[in-house]
Amino acid sequence: MSKEVYNRIKAVLAEQGKTNNWLADELEMNRTTVSKWCRNEMQPRVETLFQISRVMKVDVRELLISTMKD
Questions:
Q1: Confidence (pTM)
Q2: CB atoms within 10 A of CB 20
Q3: Cα(29)–Cα(54) distance, integer angstroms
Q4: How confident is the model at residue 63, as a pLDDT?
Q5: pLDDT tens across 35-53, in order?
Q6: Which of 8, 21, 39, 67 sits 20 to 30 Å CA-CA off 33?
Q7: In this structure, are residues 11 and 65 in contact, taking their beta carbons and an 8 Å threshold?
């Protein structure tokens, strides 16, 4: 059974040519925690998701997988 994917943090980082280590440094957070977000093993809190969007200069909605299917 495949693991559910909830966020696009890893994809957005790749689109911007940045790493999860860069994000961890920018947020002053543990690199292991950020790595777990990127692997969708753990999800950031809503407040943290907004911090991530500010640091990455993207709309917070770009960091999430849409629940609406076309």
A1: 0.89
A2: 20
A3: 15
A4: 97
A5: 999 999 999 999 999 999 9
A6: 67
A7: no
